[in-house]
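Supplementary Methods S3. Complex input for the pyridoxal-5'-phosphate-bound model.
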Amino acid sequence: MYNFDKLPDRTKVSSLKWMYDGCLPMWVADMDFDTPDFIKESIIERVKLGAFGYTNTPKEYFISFKNFLKRRHHVDIDIESMIFSTGVVPAISSIVRKLTSLHDKIMVITPTYNIFFNSILNNKRIPIESDLYFENKQYKLDFIDFENKIKDGVKMLILCNPQNPVGKIWSKEELCKIAKICLENNVIVLSDEIHSDIVTPNKEYNSSLLITELKDNLITLVSASKCFNLAGLQGSLVIVQNEKLRALVNRGLNTDEVAEGNAFVYNAFISALDGGDKWLDEMNAYVYNNKKYLKDFIDKNIKEFKYEIQDALYLAWVDIRELTEDAYDFCEFLKDYAKVYFSYGEEYGKSFKGFIRINLATSLENVKEGLNRLLYGIEQYKLKKRS
Ligand SMILES: Cc1ncc(COP(=O)(O)O)c(C=O)c1O
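Predicted complex, serialized as structure tokens:
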């Protein structure tokens, strides 16, 4: 068994997550768990060789992804359809630039990963939001709103599967409906599947790659970075099955200089993808236990909060509207006065000001500590509001 209770101390290594002094960070999607030895050793082996010059992407990188996707997601993809990129976000921004034009409309289903807005707005495209709604403990897409907006000149959909921040795994049926609407309206689907391996034990994940009708209009982005916490090594995989589309995407990634990896990323990703199944399964079980702890804690102690465990992510999306409609103000208050930090909802879509996102990829001890600080912070926040 791997040990997820014992964490490396990241306070002295310029960790983005741990940058707020003395504050327990439960915000950015980054795990605190120790990297398993077999991944560390693959990097050390490369360090021992020395000579860290330019590095081509080895064929083994693509083969490891192919085998991993076959084993875990039941899709069989030709390695010819695969391109390396230095990250999912660099790939998204590049693809937005290459496949759409200035002022084009790009659809996102909200709440969604905040950086999608940067990739759209920084490139002077227009984000169009279609909000999820919550019913019977599930997040659902309003297909009428979605289709109406798609029909109004949208050129690309940036799908998040599973959906960060809510934790929804899109069902095959939903993916087929989305595909049909996008195909009918000539909309490219860019599916960000970076979180696809962080799922509740025994839950099936549905990749966009299962939707064969979509094959020629689809670009899928995956990585070992989120599920094995290797994001600092900067790698991802862009899958484009249509040859013409692939040539365009490839050109864009090369023009933007985001198609070449560093000397360590390949060894680390290959070892994780080839040998990481056991670690991943145990990590998912550990995170699920943290989610259950959070659920019990909220139900018992915080009557103003609503939370239901969803099928994916190590992130929890919590409705705090009975306490406040201004989660930004609340999160900043907690950071300063209770020394715990969460992400606030408005970052993920303008309709979600009354939500917070809690990162549970840490030890149970930290989760307990973070929630005790939260409880203290809520009391202080109420006192401040009353005064
Ligand atoms: C949905 C989603 N996509 C992409 C990223 C970042 O990807 P990368 O580090 O490969 O650029 C994140 C990080 O939180 C994410 O949540």
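The two ends are 51 Å apart (CA to CA). DSSP finds eleven helices and twelve strands in the chain.
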